[in-house]
Amino acid sequence: AKEAGKGKYMVFDQSFLQVFNERVNLEKYLRQGLQNGEFQLFYQPQVSVRNGHITGFEALIRWNSPELGFVSPLSFIKIAEDSRLIIPIGEWVLFRACAFASSFQEEGYGKFKISVNISVIQMLQDDFIDMVMRALEDTGLEPDLLELEITETLIMESFDALIPKLAFLRSKGIQIALDDFGTGYSSLGSLQDMPITTLKIDKTFIEQVSDEGDPRSLAKAIVLIGRKMGLKVVAEGVETEQQMKYVKRAKCDMIQGYYISKPLSEEDTIQLIRSKKVY
Ligand code: C2E
Ligand code: CA
Ligand code: CA
Ligand code: CA
Predict the structure, then answer these.
(1) EAL domain spans which residues (predicted)?
(2) Cβ 263 under 6 angstroms from ligand 1
(3) Model confidence over 54-73: pLDDT tens digits?
(4) How far apart are alpha carbons 121 and 269 in whole angstroms?
(5) Does ligand 1 lie within 6 Å of residue 117's CB atom?
(6) How much distance in Å is there from the Cα of 248 to the middle of ligand 2?
(7) Which ipTM value was assigned to this complex?
């Protein structure tokens, strides 16, 4: 019995320690990564369905760690949130993205909106609004060219604390997008109370549109809801011609996905803008 008990605890201890060590290491590498400038932003174009022009870009973080190689944000954002490192990382992201978007105008390329993913941990900080306003001031970006993306699930979890902050940001002209819409639990009533400008249809709804086109996909219904509420609707994760046709018929306002372009480096983004490509 003693042997068996010991064995059990060994298994538990080892896997626990392993997970624990991996987390501690990842945290350590994240902190180091921030100091050493290992993060980069990539930019994925958003295209107007109406005229095929690029209207803006979503900034997406990339991490090339000397110890770990390329690490997907899907694996490190959660740990950055748990360790609160998302606060300095998110601040870096916001300043970098605003500076990049502001440089388009200085270079005479025109106006493009920049969409930045914001973690609720960041938004709950007392100085969040000051930080955003400082990013705009320091970079000279017009407030209406900045869009903050917040996931539907997270906003619902902290609804009362977040709504006044979002309302203030809106009053300054900053746009607010509800990300991954359709996967959370917001009622249509609470949606009406949210000071938002944009709905981003989660890509699972676009995935459902197969080669035959799927008349049962809820994407169309989501567009109608957005329309009724006076919101812009973005379809994300559009990968195929079929899906492209579907979201056009559904009258989405904007399209984002591999069918148009993968997220691009700063250099490639500038090249794309210079090419004045119309989709
Ligand atoms: P998200 O905000 O929903 O971003 C969209 C994700 O879908 C991105 O993955 C993008 O590269 C990917 N994507 C774009 N087009 C397509 C497509 O046609 N098909 C498919 N299958 N995928 C497509 P990525 O860059 O790996 O980011 C994953 C998630 O990590 C993001 O999901 C977002 O939640 C988070 N994230 C990324 N950058 C940041 C950041 O700077 N701050 C915060 N807080 N979170 C971020
Ligand atoms: Ca997003
Ligand atoms: Ca999304
Ligand atoms: Ca997502």
Answers:
(1) 23-277
(2) yes
(3) 999 999 999 999 988 999 99
(4) 29
(5) yes
(6) 21
(7) 0.98
